Amino acid sequence: MTRILHLDASARPGRAGIDVHGSHTRRLTDHFVSRWHAARPDDEVIYRDVGITPPTPVSHAWIEAAFAPEEAWQPWMVDTLAESDALIDELVAADILVLGVPLYNFSAPSGFKAWIDNVIRQGRTVVIDPGNPDAPFSPLLSDRPRVAVLISSRGGHGMEPGGPYAHMNHLEPSVRTALEFIGISDLRTVAVEHQEDGGELLAASVNAALQRTEAIADTLLQTFPAAALSAIPQYR
Ligand SMILES: Cc1cc2nc3c(=O)[nH]c(=O)nc-3n(C[C@H](O)[C@H](O)[C@H](O)COP(=O)(O)O)c2cc1C
After folding, report:
1. Between helices 110-119 and 82-93, what is the axis angle to 10°?
2. Per mean pLDDT, which range of 63-67, 122-126, 198-202, 222-226 is the poorest?
3. Three-state SS for 44?
4. Ligand 1 lining (C-beta closer than 6 Å)
5. Which of 1, 168, 185, 199 sits at a 20 to 30 Å CA gap from 41?
6. 143-174 per-position pLDDT tens digit
7. Ligand 1 pocket test: which of 24, 49, 112, 154 has the largest number of ligand atoms within 8 Å of its C-beta?
8. How far apart are the first and last CA of the chain?
9. Residue 234 has pLDDT above 80, yes or no
10. So what's the pLDDT on residue 230?
């Protein structure tokens, strides 16, 4: 069995093609998961909506708790980190991350950034050791193969790598860096463009994104065998 973490970050609750003013990223993440479930109905899908219910932003208390050595843990620290622990548990359990993340002002929506800030954590997803200058960062999620599928949508166009407006898109590079930092280095990307143009330009981009989403799902169905169920690691 394969576990999928299905995460949506659009502020728009509906799905394009179904709901008025619906989200393209929600349509595509749903398309991936529906295709997967059609092939493997018993596989587990964990759902997290950081667009409608954003994680709590990192606070002073969070930072103090997250960097406290284990022998100094106090009950308030455990409480402060409970939400972060829950988000990390979902991430650690997953084999495939299906991340629907629109481009907002050149980068990710704030709810997704709050998710990133909660799941990159000393001792849980990465070990940071400034005393070891040769290898100051040790990712903890490279213990088994994990793949992230980053599905985005943008109002403009030409923001793919090498495109004329790539410099106005910091989303994919920042997500790639963040996930590699904790040990997830296999990132596949899909993007709708021309949302603001609409019409045939948008329709062609949506069709290409749907096909690419299907191709990635079909490839990963081969990569992740049907029978293997990874044990959920227990921390703390
Ligand atoms: C707050 C906000 C900021 C946006 N910033 C950008 C941007 O920097 N570049 C761009 O091409 N499109 C931008 N857009 C357009 C969205 O990327 C586009 O509407 C996309 O389809 C949203 O994803 P969704 O359809 O999943 O909701 C922005 C939209 C919003 C609401």
Report:
1. 90
2. 222-226
3. strand
4. 10, 12, 23-26, 102-106, 153-156, 195
5. 185
6. 999 999 999 999 999 999 999 999 999 999 99
7. 154
8. 25
9. no
10. 52
